[in-house]
Amino acid sequence: MQLQGSIESFQQAGIGVVVLSYDSPELQQRFVEKFSITYPVLSDVSAESVNALGVLNTDYQPGDSAYGVAIPGVFILDTSQRVVGKIFIEGYEKRVDAAGVLAFAQEALQR
């Protein structure tokens, strides 16, 4: 929700936003509608993407209700879809705020 409140700043900077979650598409859709989310929210219920990206939270195993949760973080990709920056913080209770992500992305994309 905090990200949605800053989405105009990302758009003005020419930076697109996409979110990946382990939640089912149905649960995501309810969230999107409830909070008027305007950026794409992708579902990774099988944890294939978070495994491939190397950001799977290994505190949970297949069969656990939280299996598929990623380590909270952000990848910054340039227009060639090359990763030019990333921020990942162990523990779900700590997050980088949207303004911090935007500043980091702008710096990473200028390199």
What report would you give on this structure?
The chain is of the alpha+beta class. The chain is built from five helices and four strands. It has helices spanning 2-5, 7-12, 25-34, 48-53, 98-110; strands spanning 19-21, 41-43, 73-77, 83-88. The strands form two sheets. It has a two-stranded parallel sheet. It has a two-stranded antiparallel sheet with strand order 3-4. The longest helix is centred in the last third of the chain and has 13 residues, at 98-110. The radius of gyration is 14 Å and the shape is globular. The mean pLDDT is 91.
Give me the secondary-structure topology.
Elements: H1 2-5, H2 7-12, E1 19-21, H3 25-34, E2 41-43, H4 48-53, E3 73-77, E4 83-88, H5 98-110
Parallel strand pairs: 1-2
Antiparallel strand pairs: 3-4
**How many helical stretches?**
5
Q: What's the helical proportion of residues?
A: 25-40%
Strand order of the largest sheet: 1-2
Q: Runs with pLDDT <50, length 5+?
A: none
Looking at the structure, what is the overall shape? globular
H/E element order: HHEHEHEEH
Structural class based on helices, strands and sheet pairing: alpha+beta
User: Biggest sheet, in brief?
Assistant: 2 strands, parallel
Question: Beta-strand percentage?
Answer: 15-25%
Q: What Rg, in angstroms, do the CA atoms define?
A: 14 Å
Number of strands: 4
The overall pLDDT, averaged over residues, is 91
